Amino acid sequence: MNPTVSNAQDPLTGWRYRAVVLSVVASALGYLGFSLWGGWHAVGAAVSEVGVVGILIALFMSSVNYGLRFIRWQTYLKVLGHPMPWRPNLSIYLAGFALTTTPGKAGEALRGVLLKRWGVPYPQSFAAFFSERLSDLLAVVLLTLFGLSLYPEAMPMIVVGISLVLAGLLVLSQRRLLERLTAMVPGEGGKLIGLLRHLLHVLVHAQQCHRLRLMLGLTALSVVAWSAEALAFDWILQWMGADIPLTFAVFVYALAMLAGAVSFMPGGLGGAEAVMVGLLVWKGMSSADAIAATVLIRLATLWFAVAIGAVMLFRLKGEAVPHGQTAQ
Question: What is the DSSP string of 267-314?
Fold first, then answer.
């Protein structure tokens, strides 16, 4: 097949590209307002306390997160029968971060459009995207449960939560069970029934990514990836002089990511910040310091990713794959 794309067919031109730019600009303006609300003086003081080295360390930990998640992405495509050369696939994967500020990070599915140039069908790329989101969700839930271990009275909740995660992994790994569940869903019904049926069809299609051993390994990889950013958050708090235990810092970060995901706001904006600030203030930080710490970690994680994605997307805009190359 010929993976080259003409300018007329290029999905990164015209209104689509403008939509990407507007999404990022609108989210950035909203975040600017949040930062101003917290006060630039507090943010500036936090930057001074953390220092250039501290900021670079936080960015490095975010890079570790992106790198491990890319390895997972490569694995999903390989399992789905479309192994990609790592260099172009890395560019495509990072370019997806430009749309992290879309609701539920759904815009990251742009990778499927870019992978189409390399002969990867949309169903396979969407299956990889869905599996990635699911793996992230499981990892963040596990980190949240880890944070709850700070409170002995939460142990029953932790046991139930881990049991549900393990049960979910087991169910997702059983193709026949998923097919039976799909067959049980009525062919007609309301929007909720239609959504359930569509979700089950996606799960069946992506089941190759959900084999139990593979899921366990990649879920562990996801936990390590998100732990890197949670650790960076803890270090920022320590550098700012906050008396916050590591376990609680991990809990705050993981719960904030979870809240941002379920809020379906662009990039989790609003939901994630509210959880972070609220819990840090509850733990004894001043509101100004809590907002400053939140702004710093989000700049080092969310907005660092968006910046990388924007650069890669600009590089890929209008670029065609060399003639004759496909996913190997």
Answer: TTTTHHHHHHHHHHHHTT--HHHHHHHHHHHHIIIIIHHHHHHHHHHH
- 275, 259 contact by CB (below 8 A): yes
Give the pLDDT band of residue 268 (cuts 50, 70, 90).
low
Give the Cα separation of 54 and 192 in Å (integer).
47
- Can you count the helices (H) and strands (E) in the chain? 13, 0
Taking the C-alpha atoms of residue 171 and residue 286, their distance in angstroms, rounded to an integer, is 44
- At which residue do the structure tokens 């975040």 appear? 31
Pair 95, 53: CB distance under 8 Å: no
| pLDDT tens profile 208-243 | 888 888 988 999 999 999 999 999 999 999 999 999
CA distance 151 to 128: 36
- Give the HSE-up count for residue 178: Cα atoms under 13 Å, Cβ half-sphere: 23
Mean pLDDT of the chain: 80
Band the pLDDT of 24: cuts 50, 70, 90: low
Nearest to 211 by CA among 70, 76, 68, 71: 76
pTM greater than the 0.90 cutoff = no
* 3-class SS letters over 125-177: HHHHHHHHHHHHHHHHHHHHHHHHCCCHHHHHHHHHHHHHHHHHHHHHCCHHH
* 108 against 221, higher pLDDT: 221
Contacts of 193 (CB under 8 A, 6+ apart): 185, 186
Task: Say if CB 288 and CB 38 are below 8 A apart.
Answer: yes
**Residue 31, both tokens:** 């975040």
Strand partners, 266: 103
**Neighbouring-strand partners of residue 103:** 266
Give CA–CA dist 173/214, Å, rounded.
9
Better pLDDT: 71 or 10: 71
